[in-house]
């Protein structure tokens, strides 16, 4: 369709990128971005662009990507636990200052002929436009006022964003135990010789440290200085003597936004306005810019607005929902992260990389054989040979008490072992249903059970959730832990074994 006029609400990455791509695709279209903020004021620190996102940006708009890469900072990833460190190579990951990202996108949008207006809040009904693209963020006023069928799920953990005035050599994941509980940072360098420090904790630790009170006392336009000074001491080693920098920094809980519909009349949602996915999978900027690519393609190729919006949503929704599910699992893993600090750092890194089921164990091993070899030796007390890593993990023997198992695949429970089976349908192993399973497992142990078997549906998501539930019981209750799953899930089950989520697995028949 030929778009005469397009109004874009929001001057963030998604809105600016959509505006540029639309103007490039349809030069005669009048495209105006309406950003309520000041052009010289932005919030946040650095953002990450992974290799997959860079490939998509290169195909859509190589000129913009080239400037983003020049402005960015490449880095690998390091995890530090208990004085030990391990490193993962990821040489196409870049961090870029949010200010630099927006400057590049603003410059390229204006170069294409987009007009950008700042400083005024606008509503969708104010425009004489064929298309209104609402890219106004997680707290979207457009979404709240329209008929989009929104739902918002709020996470249990708390986090805050801050920064530091030096560049870390790598992205860093580091937990620190304090007298109040565990705090963990996800930190990474970005351009300008600075680093982002994202810091998470659980609600009990947050309250014990008094941060519920400091959060209530911090105005919306200020930073929680008390928390920042406390966290400077907690992460003094990681900060290397530098202070933490705030920018409207305050504790909050992650909000997962979902919408039943992404469009309402001539208005369409894009990026965080339509959907969010937890920051631990680095997804906000990625999703918004990939949305922009698909939306502009649909507008250019379909005959009318309704068809274009339907095509855009049909194209993007499967990928978004897949990433939201990965992000949900990642969020639950991070919210329960302190329970894993007993693991050696290499095993913990394998657990981290396989936490959401997106990175197969053998693929991770191909790129980082030193990390996986160390984790395998911690798992089996022997180095893995060259060959099929999954087979090797499953073939390792296990001694549990007085019982010897020749390998980790259990055909039947041996005589003399009492095993309690759980077949509960659980979507979140750390919710009340998960709490109930843990309570029943504790009682079963008191009654003499040697271990537990976790059974259920054969689909992959159910198997991944069983592994998480099994890990929780293994950590909090103990005993021999067995997880059932189909042979098609053998790689996931092997990752669960080497990551300390279970002790044995049992293959079941596939569902028809």
TrEMBL record:
Matches recorded under Gene3D superfamilies: 3.30.9.20, FAD/NAD(P)-binding domain
Source organism superkingdom: Bacteria
Enzyme class: oxidoreductase
InterPro entries, per database record: FAD-bd, FAD/NAD-bd_sf, PheA/TfdB_FAD_monoxygenase
Limits of the FAD-binding domain: 99-324
Record-level Gene Ontology MF annotations: anthraniloyl-CoA monooxygenase activity; FAD binding
Keyword list, A-Z: Monooxygenase, NAD, Oxidoreductase
Known EC number: 1.14.13.40
PANTHER family, sorted: 3-(3-HYDROXY-PHENYL)PROPIONATE/3-HYDROXYCINNAMIC ACID HYDROXYLASE, BLR0106 PROTEIN
Annotated protein name in UniProt: Anthraniloyl-CoA monooxygenase
């Amino acid at each position: 369709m030929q778009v005469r006029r397009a109004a874009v609400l929001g001057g963030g990455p998604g809105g600016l990128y959509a505006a540029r791509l639309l103007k490039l695709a349809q030069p005669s279209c009048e495209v105006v971005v309406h950003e309520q903020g000041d052009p010289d004021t932005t919030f946040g620190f650095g953002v990450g662009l992974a290799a997959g996102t860079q490939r998509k940006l290169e195909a859509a708009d190589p000129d913009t990507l080239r400037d983003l890469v020049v402005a960015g900072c490449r880095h690998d990833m390091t995890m530090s636990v208990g004085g030990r460190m391990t490193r993962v190579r990821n040489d196409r990951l870049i961090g870029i200052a949010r200010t630099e990202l927006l400057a590049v996108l603003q410059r390229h949008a204006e170069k294409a002929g987009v007009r950008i207006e700042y400083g005024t809040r606008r509503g969708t009904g104010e425009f004489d436009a064929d298309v209104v693209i609402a890219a106004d963020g997680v707290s979207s006023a457009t979404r709240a006022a329209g008929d989009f069928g929104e739902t918002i799920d709020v996470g249990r953990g708390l986090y805050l964003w801050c920064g530091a005035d030096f560049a870390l050599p790598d992205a860093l994941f580091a937990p620190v135990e304090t007298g109040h509980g565990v705090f963990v940072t996800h930190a990474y360098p970005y351009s300008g010789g600075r680093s982002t420090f994202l810091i998470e904790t659980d609600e009990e630790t947050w309250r014990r440290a008094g941060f519920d009170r400091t959060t209530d006392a911090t105005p919306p336009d200020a930073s929680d200085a008390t928390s920042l000074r406390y966290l400077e001491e907690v992460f003094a080693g990681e900060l290397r003597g530098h202070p933490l920098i705030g920018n409207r920094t305050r504790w909050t809980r992650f909000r997962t936004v979902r919408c039943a519909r992404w469009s309402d009349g001539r208005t369409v949602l894009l990026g965080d306005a339509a959907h969010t996915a937890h920051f631990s999978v680095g997804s906000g900027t990625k999703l918004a810019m990939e949305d922009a690519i698909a939306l502009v393609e649909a507008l250019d190729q379909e005959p009318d607005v309704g068809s274009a919006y339907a095509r855009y949503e049909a194209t993007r929704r499967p990928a978004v929902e897949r990433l939201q599910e990965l992000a949900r699992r990642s969020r639950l893993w991070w919210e329960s992260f302190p329970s894993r600090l007993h693991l050696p750092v290499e095993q913990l890194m394998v657990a981290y990389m396989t936490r959401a089921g997106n990175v197969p164990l053998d693929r991770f091993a191909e790129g980082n054989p030193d990390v996986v070899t160390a984790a395998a030796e911690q798992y089996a007390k022997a180095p893995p040979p060259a060959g099929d890593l999954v087979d090797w993990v499953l073939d390792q023997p296990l001694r549990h008490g007085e019982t010897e198992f020749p390998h980790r695949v259990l055909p039947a429970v041996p005589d003399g072992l009492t095993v309690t089976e759980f077949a509960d349908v659980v979507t979140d192993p750390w919710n009340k249903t998960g709490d109930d399973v843990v309570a029943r497992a504790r009682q079963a142990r008191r009654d003499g059970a040697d271990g537990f078997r976790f059974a259920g549906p054969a689909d992959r998501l159910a198997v991944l959730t069983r592994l998480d539930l099994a890990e929780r019981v293994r950590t909090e209750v103990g005993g021999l832990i067995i997880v059932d799953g189909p042979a098609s899930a053998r790689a996931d089950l092997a990752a669960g074994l080497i990551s300390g989520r279970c002790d044995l697995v049992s293959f079941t028949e596939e569902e028809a």
